[in-house]
Amino acid sequence: MSQIAEVTIDGQNYQFPVIEGSEREKAIDIAKLRDQTGYITLDSGFKNTGATKSAITFLDGEEGILRYRGYSIEDLAEKASFLEVAYLLIYGELPTQEQYQQFEHEVRTHTLVNEDMRKIFEGFPVNAHPMGVLSSLVSAMSAFYPDTYDSTAEDVTDLHIIRLMAKLPTIATWSYKKSKGHPVNYPNNNLDYCSNFLSMMFALPVEKYEVDPVVSAALNKLLILHADHEQNCSTSTVRLVGSSQANIYSSISAGISALWGPLHGGANQEVIEMLEAIKADGGDTQKYINMAKDKSSGFRLFGFGHRVYKNFDPRARIIKKAANEVLTKLGVNDPVLEIAKQLEAAALEDEYFVSRKLYPNVDFYSGIIYRALGIPTNMFTVMFAIGRLPGWIAQWKEMRTNKEPIGRPRQVYVGPAQRDFVALESR
Ligand code: CMC
Catalytic one among 160, 226, 229, 306? Predict the structure, then answer.
């Protein structure tokens, strides 16, 4: 028998259906709450509010489980390529060999970016943050593909999806090249996705650049681990913007902006800066633990805590292991890895962190790997965005396919009650 939830307001009883997801999570469907009772719910930060039914990603924060379309993150990170995972997220199934070849070929052959986009890029100051540049240029892409304004036809949307997947890495490398005073590199369509990105980042016209397979494999893994994470801040932003039927480029651009914040994707940059600060301060991890516990300090331990995980973030486990492996293989000795491990060990024994169930999240160790790969700190969140792109696309597509209504939360108004206008000369 299907369950119901009962609410009593002023002695009157109302019933609402309980719906159950495929992993047994339960939700009270309050779609008719206001119609029936005149009341709304208030849930600041949406801590208890499901915004949608989604078939893309499952995560169990208590158990530390993460799956894309039913496949465990551990399996995908170990055995799949990033483009395979992108296909899985966007189209719902792992691709057959033929589907994969076609998808990979399409992405590979759309990497070139319109030269006029370069002119827009040239206008940015040399020290512009790469996330601001990325968000602006993705938004600008809508002007180059105006058929996206009416992207109801599925084949048109598919082409925009390919364009976004193919061109985001190209655009992402421009900021780095400019910051170094180096010419930008054109994509090389003979290379696979990760190798092409690395080559655009690091190749110079004056010498031969060989992609290190260790670096490329590490990048592949990191991108997979970031590829989707259900209704987080940036993904919800993409869905909300897209729900007004805004085009896919504007929606993704908004997601990039949301990701930039230090409480979300921007945390990976903050973590490395924090670890560097601890190192420069003599490596006293306890001092920073104490600061994080002191609410008046305004300091948080970046890379710790998560809205949904109240256990180890499974991505953090994989990344910690990968950080050890990659640094060893590349022969990199980064003292901040030791500081990170000490900080983690100290926090996991501290009553403050234990009682609040604060564990390392995906951003805690990822920056250490990015740094070993040669990626500069201000590009870390850009790397997150490249990884998250297929997730955003999949979520945008699901929202459009399901014809979800425009997102429009309500509020409880707490401002002044009605009052009379006072003319300026009388104030
Ligand atoms: N350091 C110190 N205290 C913390 C931290 C932290 N990193 N995170 C949470 N707390 C405390 C918080 O002060 C609160 O304490 P109290 O109950 O005494 O008021 C309690 O733990 C619950 O925290 P919250 O802020 O209510 O939890 P939230 O779900 O709203 O926030 C979070 C989640 C990720 C924003 C937060 O844990 C945080 O700011 N972490 C640091 C930033 C970070 O690493 N962000 C990346 C998140 S994972 C990747 C992603 O989403 O992009």
Answer: 306
What local confidence, expressed as pLDDT, does residue 311 receive? 87
Q: Which atom of ligand 1 is nearest to the CA of 313?
A: 48
Q: Which residue has the tokens 């991108």?
A: 223
| Active-site annotation holds for 281 | no
Kindly state the tokens that stand for 265. 């994707």
Residue 120: per-residue pLDDT: 97
Amino acid at 110: H
Helix axes 213-225, 380-401, angle to 10 degrees: 40
The Å distance, Cα 356 to ligand 1 centre, comes to 9
pLDDT beneath 50, residues of the chain: none
Sequential DSSP letters for 94-142: PPPHHHHHHHHHHHHTT----HHHHHHHHTS-TT--HHHHHHHHHHHHH
Query: Considering the entire predicted model, what is its pTM?
Result: 0.95
Query: Which residue out of 229, 231, 269, 307 has the highest number of ligand 1 atoms within 8 Å of its CB and is therefore the one to mutate?
Result: 307
Atom of ligand 1 nearest to the CA of 304: 7
Q: Tell me 191's DSSP state.
A: S
CA angle at residue 230 from 170 to 269, to 5 degrees? 50
62's tokens: 């208590």
The yes-or-no answer on residue 229 being catalytic is: no
